[in-house]
Amino acid sequence: MNEFLRLLQKSLRPFGYDVRRRKTLNLLPFCGISPLPALDRVRRDFDHDGGDASKTNSNLDVLKIVYRICLTQQRCEKTYEGVASKSLMDTVEHCFISLLNSVNAALQKKDPPHIELIILDDHSDVVYLDRIKNLAAQSKCAWRVQTTKETGQGGSLHEQFSLARHDNALYYFL
User: Fold this and answer.
1) Which of 71, 90, 123, 147 could be bridged to 86 by S-S, CB 3.0 to 4.6 A?
2) Whole-angstrom Cα distance, residue 161 to residue 117?
3) Angle at 99 between CA 39 and CA 167, to 5 degrees
4) Can you give the pTM of this predicted structure?
């Protein structure tokens, strides 16, 4: 690293930035905060979001995972160089398998949470959707496929947030 970059690195470090060589890890440790806040603080913040606490009835014991997909032949046949040089379908399958492994492991713990999996499908081709359904059948939690009303990323994003808006559960979006 040349002198200018070293100077830049030292001057940016107090602000939480770091200058590194390409293809090196760029992970900085947490400074002065706990990486995982206490659950009671999360519950308090979740229940007291500025409204009357007596009117809220938040349920953090139910986790609903929304997994958005749009798998069409045109998109799935491309190879994406930036994402492991695999097709979109292969990448989606590997991510979905990882999610299912995590969910199934969480459900084997003592006092497991109630988890539901919602596959929000943006009008995928049947052959690709069936591959995801076959994988979902291996899940130990309740799951369902819901097709979006509108096509496109904006419509499916709006629909996923609308699902959670008035539901009494904790949501995780993928």
Assistant:
1) 90
2) 15
3) 55
4) 0.66
Write out pLDDT tens, residues 44-66: 665 555 554 444 455 678 899 99
C-alpha span between 159 and 167 (Å, rounded): 13
Separation of alpha carbons 8 and 38, rounded Å: 37
Neighbours of 18 (CB within 10 A): 12
Structure confidence by residue, pLDDT tens digits, 156-173: 899 999 988 888 888 999
Domain ranges within the chain, ordered by starting residue:
56-173
- HEC readout, 76-90: HCCEECCCCCEEHHH
> What residues form DSSP beta bridges with 172?
65
Average pLDDT, the chain: 80
Q: 118 exposed, middle or buried (CB, 10 Å; 0-12, 13-18, 19+)?
A: buried
